[in-house]
Amino acid sequence: MNLILFGPPAAGKGTQAKRLVVARNMVQLSTGDMLRAAIAAESELGLKVKDILASGGYVADEIVIALIRERLPEAEAAGGAIFDGFPRTVAQAEALDAMLAERGSQIDKVVRLNVDEAALIDRIETRFAEQGRSDDNPQVYKERLAKYNAETAPLLPFYAAQGKLAEVEGMGSMEEVAARIEAALA
């Protein structure tokens, strides 16, 4: 099974993806985690994307698509992928569909976490205080949220038209949200 966890920044996608990795033995493909690892390693890619991420910008499609393509064999061997933070645009979604089709696969389900914007700001402030991630300061978050609403939210009709979109209430405890996701996947 290949699934996409969809929702604005700080909606809990990463938390739920990690839970699904354990529960379903899938591979989490988080472009954000991959890019932050490249920055921490001070690789050539990390140096290229550091300022982009710190300012709340999106990394070029070619880079994130290449990162995903590189990790697909690992996901296939595990029995599926959880895409977290990818795709972010219709162009990326089309590229992902084509990549998977080349491999005889597809996206099976898109789970959208519906969350309250004020609660997201609280999450960001807490995460920034605890982890100090430069892409999580409140000002950068507002820019990321605006980009999400302008560029990523249009993916909803794209996946709804394919009959793959499941709406899940994303507010509540981690366990409550996890139970809702499991019900959507059943």
Automatic annotation (TrEMBL):
<keyword id="KW-0067">ATP-binding</keyword>
<dbReference type="InterPro" id="IPR033690">
    <property type="entry name" value="Adenylat_kinase_CS"/>
</dbReference>
<feature type="binding site">
    <location>
        <position position="144"/>
    </location>
    <ligand>
        <name>AMP</name>
    </ligand>
</feature>
<keyword id="KW-0418">Kinase</keyword>
<dbReference type="GO" id="GO:0005737">
    <property type="term" value="C:cytoplasm"/>
</dbReference>
<dbReference type="Pfam" id="PF00406">
    <property type="entry name" value="ADK"/>
</dbReference>
<comment type="subunit">
    <text>Monomer.</text>
</comment>
<feature type="binding site">
    <location>
        <position position="92"/>
    </location>
    <ligand>
        <name>AMP</name>
    </ligand>
</feature>
<dbReference type="GO" id="GO:0005524">
    <property type="term" value="F:ATP binding"/>
</dbReference>
<keyword id="KW-0808">Transferase</keyword>
<keyword id="KW-0545">Nucleotide biosynthesis</keyword>
<feature type="binding site">
    <location>
        <begin position="10"/>
        <end position="15"/>
    </location>
    <ligand>
        <name>ATP</name>
    </ligand>
</feature>
<dbReference type="InterPro" id="IPR027417">
    <property type="entry name" value="P-loop_NTPase"/>
</dbReference>
<comment type="function">
    <text>Catalyzes the reversible transfer of the terminal phosphate group between ATP and AMP. Plays an important role in cellular energy homeostasis and in adenine nucleotide metabolism.</text>
</comment>
<feature type="binding site">
    <location>
        <position position="127"/>
    </location>
    <ligand>
        <name>ATP</name>
    </ligand>
</feature>
<feature type="binding site">
    <location>
        <position position="36"/>
    </location>
    <ligand>
        <name>AMP</name>
    </ligand>
</feature>
<dbReference type="GO" id="GO:0044209">
    <property type="term" value="P:AMP salvage"/>
</dbReference>
<keyword id="KW-0547">Nucleotide-binding</keyword>
<dbReference type="GO" id="GO:0004017">
    <property type="term" value="F:AMP kinase activity"/>
</dbReference>
<comment type="pathway">
    <text>Purine metabolism; AMP biosynthesis via salvage pathway; AMP from ADP: step 1/1.</text>
</comment>
<dbReference type="InterPro" id="IPR000850">
    <property type="entry name" value="Adenylat/UMP-CMP_kin"/>
</dbReference>
<feature type="binding site">
    <location>
        <position position="31"/>
    </location>
    <ligand>
        <name>AMP</name>
    </ligand>
</feature>
<feature type="binding site">
    <location>
        <position position="133"/>
    </location>
    <ligand>
        <name>AMP</name>
    </ligand>
</feature>
<feature type="binding site">
    <location>
        <position position="172"/>
    </location>
    <ligand>
        <name>ATP</name>
    </ligand>
</feature>
<protein>
    <recommendedName>
        <fullName>Adenylate kinase</fullName>
        <ecNumber>2.7.4.3</ecNumber>
    </recommendedName>
</protein>
<feature type="region of interest" description="NMP">
    <location>
        <begin position="30"/>
        <end position="59"/>
    </location>
</feature>
<comment type="similarity">
    <text>Belongs to the adenylate kinase family.</text>
</comment>
<feature type="binding site">
    <location>
        <begin position="57"/>
        <end position="59"/>
    </location>
    <ligand>
        <name>AMP</name>
    </ligand>
</feature>
<feature type="binding site">
    <location>
        <begin position="85"/>
        <end position="88"/>
    </location>
    <ligand>
        <name>AMP</name>
    </ligand>
</feature>
<keyword id="KW-0963">Cytoplasm</keyword>
